[in-house]
Amino acid sequence: MAGLSIWHVLIFAIVVILLFGTSKLKNLGKDVGGAVKDFKKSIKDDETTATSNTEPRTLEHQNTNTDVNSTVKH
């Protein structure tokens, strides 16, 4: 596992907890969770606005485009 055992991970976790304390880690977790939630919300909002801004193309609209293209000489 790339030279890492469970003991390495546990020692690293203990050192991080001792350095920063549980309250700072708790606040950091809340901040990261809130940022992820806001990011997901903005992505969902962008998708709904993108789908609502597009107009469905009808056959009549497509026929007018092909008529215009057929009259143009290349």
TrEMBL record:
Quaternary structure and interacting proteins, as annotated: The Tat system comprises two distinct complexes: a TatABC complex, containing multiple copies of TatA, TatB and TatC subunits, and a separate TatA complex, containing only TatA subunits. Substrates initially bind to the TatABC complex, which probably triggers association of the separate TatA complex to form the active translocon.
Q: Where does this protein have compositionally biased stretches of type Polar residues?
A: 49-74
Q: Topology relative to the membrane, per the entry?
A: Single-pass membrane protein
Disordered: annotated segments: 45-74
Q: Gene encoding it?
A: tatA
* Keywords recorded for this protein, A-Z: Cell membrane, Membrane, Protein transport, Translocation, Transmembrane, Transmembrane helix, Transport
Biological process, per Gene Ontology: protein transport by the Tat complex
Q: Could you identify this protein by its name? A: Sec-independent protein translocase protein TatA
- GO cellular component labels: TAT protein transport complex
The answer to keyword Ribosomal protein applying to this record is no
Assign the protein's first listed, main location to one coarse class.
membrane
Read off the lineage from the record: Bacteria, Pseudomonadati, Pseudomonadota, Gammaproteobacteria, Moraxellales
Q: Does the keyword Nucleus apply?
A: no
List the PANTHER family.
Answer: SEC-INDEPENDENT PROTEIN TRANSLOCASE PROTEIN TATA
State its role: Part of the twin-arginine translocation (Tat) system that transports large folded proteins containing a characteristic twin-arginine motif in their signal peptide across membranes. TatA could form the protein-conducting channel of the Tat system.
Per its UniProt record, what InterPro entries does this chain match? TatA/B/E (IPR003369), TatA/E (IPR006312)
